[in-house]
Amino acid sequence: MRKHYLGAGFRRPALIAAYLIMLTGCLEQSQTTVDDQGARVSGFDWGLPEHIPLPREPEDNPMTEEKFQLGRHLFYDSRLSSNGTISCSSCHQQENAFSDGQAQPAGATGERHSRNSQALVNVAWNNTLTWANPSLGTIEKQIMIPLFGDDPIEHGLNEGNHEQVLRSLQAEPVYASLFAEAFPGQSDPLFSDQAWDNVVKALASFVRGLISFDSDFDRGGLSAEALRGERLFNSERLECFHCHAGYNFTDATTDRLTSFNTLLFHNTGLYNIDGLGAYPEPNTGRHEVTGKASHMGQFRAPSLRNVALTAPYNHDGSVDTLENVIRNYAAGGRLRVSPPYPGDGRMNPYKDGFIVSFSITESEIQDLVAFLESLTDQAFISNPRFSNPWTDNSNKDLSP
Amino acid sequence: MGKKRGLYCFIAGSVVLLSGCGGSSSSSTETATDELTELTIPFKAMVGSDPVTCGQTFTGLGTNSASVEFEDFRMFVSNVRLVTDQGEEIPFNLDPDALGQNAQVALLDFRDKADVDEAGAVSDVCISGTQDNPGFKNYLKGTAKLDPAKTISHFEFTIGVPFELNHASQTDAEEPLRNPGFASGMTWNWQNGYKFMAIDVLPVGGITRPSDAEWTGSAWNLHLGSTGCEVGASELDAGVPPEPCAADNRVDVSLPLAGYEPGAYEIVIDYAALVSGSNLNQDDGGAVGCMSFAGDPECPAIFRNLALPFGEEQNTGGNPNAVVFSIAELQAP
Prior knowledge:
The complex is a heterodimer of chains A (400) and B (333).
Chain A: H1 2-24, H2 27-31, H3 65-75, H4 88-91, H5 139-148, H6 162-170, H7 173-182, H8 195-208, H9 216-219, H10 224-233, H11 240-243, E1 266-267, H12 286-290, E2 298-299, H13 322-330, E3 335-336, E4 343-344, H14 362-373, H15 378-382
Helix pairs in contact in A: 3-7, 3-8, 5-8, 10-14
Chain B: H1 2-14, E1 37-47, E2 50-51, E3 57-61, E4 66-84, E5 89-91, E6 93-94, E7 105-109, E8 113-116, E9 122-123, E10 131-132, E11 139-144, E12 152-159, H2 163-166, E13 187-188, E14 193-194, E15 197-203, E16 207-209, E17 212-217, E18 220-224, E19 251-256, E20 265-270, H3 271-274, E21 289-290, H4 299-305, E22 325-329
Parallel strand pairs in B: 1-20, 18-21
Antiparallel strand pairs in B: 1-2, 1-11, 3-4, 4-5, 4-7, 4-12, 4-15, 6-11, 8-9, 8-10, 12-19, 13-14, 15-18, 16-17, 20-22
């Protein structure tokens, strides 16, 4: 516990500095003091505001518009599942900032996922993927989980169907040119043994290109209510900004100016089912991967951009509204008196040092929600670049 | 079965050299140490005295005498070597052109049945399969530098994928590590690696949890693999070496060759011994069966029989009453 607190305290000045830089627009100044060779070099038009540093691009999968466009077609293609029933867009819907409005979605076979579908917003800047997996550093690796994972089954691709699924993609006339344009160095990118590698790289490129920096907050047109909420957000009373830090409102951010990476996860006191801090299985967070007791209930702080569109909340979708998320934090954790999984999360021994209780009035809660709503980017959810490119239902038609 | 019989003949012809009786080879003694001898090492999956096969129910397993049918039975083998009676390790160089193996790793696949369509695509491996599984593999093929002057006393190998390969891209990996491909179903993406060993069974009567009367399960899975793999900064900063996993869970097997006639033995893995301390109709929490995670209640008994450390238990020497790996007389198929 002591170590945990010290760790949190240690990173505080750096995060505040990062946040202030963003607020005051002084990043240009700081750019002159760091070696940012290559920081603005990309084969892809990221279309970012000047003050946002470019995200990393994997050396073996640099961004191109052609891969982005191929990935967009694949993202919306339900042939990419065991039975043609789901695509990536089934659980990641543009109108919900690429979340799905459900607490826990079901995969191709109907098996329910134990976690909430994450919004896909500025994922390119995340230094780890999914809710809490310190072993996943790239979107390419993350994509293998929904496609090929068997616990739970999501897209349901496996040993017995991947050849058939690939054949159905190969039979789609549109893909011949899309694959050729996306992978110009390959003689036969759709039929060679690199085909699946290409599918994954293109999907990752599309997800990496889902950019949202055009909210009211970015435009500077906040209402009086939202401005009051912003001050609360940044106050030492509420402490929101420590974990939801910087231009992407998460401390799990890495960009091309980042010189020191720390992978951060936090226990926010949602559960305490045994009085010893346990979260219900399998959602034990970072602990699920590392097995370390001190990692119990630690999850990556999600970006708050477009958060008003992504209810229900938390890793398992167990909190219905932003107001109730705030109330849990105000209480210093969640006291759950009735099943499932009753327990006093406020007393969770692994709780992050910044999850302290605070007093807040109902009108302050509404101010804070107004600020969070100002992070909604209407252009993002209506951007035709991110929309379903299939003009008819041909992608649903599995007959020859 | 014609394919397998052909394999057996080949084994009989080449395994002779394994014992170190290389004097009968055509090479002269002067050049013997520089020449590579082709070897094939047969493996056999057993349940007690019965060979593993798909679609058959095996009885009398574990602490409650469970009956099970196999759903999966595969493992990655690496770091194969022959050890002389002087303790010298002679590398067994896996033939990268042989089915299901590359120069570093082989995927043994003991599922003998599958459904195969006209185009050659495989579906429903094992459970409902009625044809030969084209991925079936029960041998290692390779070469070793055998010196007639040296006596090979032990055969050794590791069950697992080497660290450098375990966390690399799967979609453009060299077979048998490619997913989708040979490694389909053998990947462990949540831990960013591979299942080193996957032995899944369907127990007759299903699986229950004493802690939850409502809960039922169908498959008791044994998934061995590295756990606690935090990528740290390695994925983020080029040039930073990857961090090792908290528990690498690679099984080192060393088997004495003594006592068998040249060419008359095979490596045996016995599932009955492996699960001798487990109740296959019950799960006490965590993943169903043992999936290597710290605290999984089904893992201590399995890890002890594999002589793998688990939690506080070092399990050095394994369980003398559960001989999971052994060398046995080679049986005709």
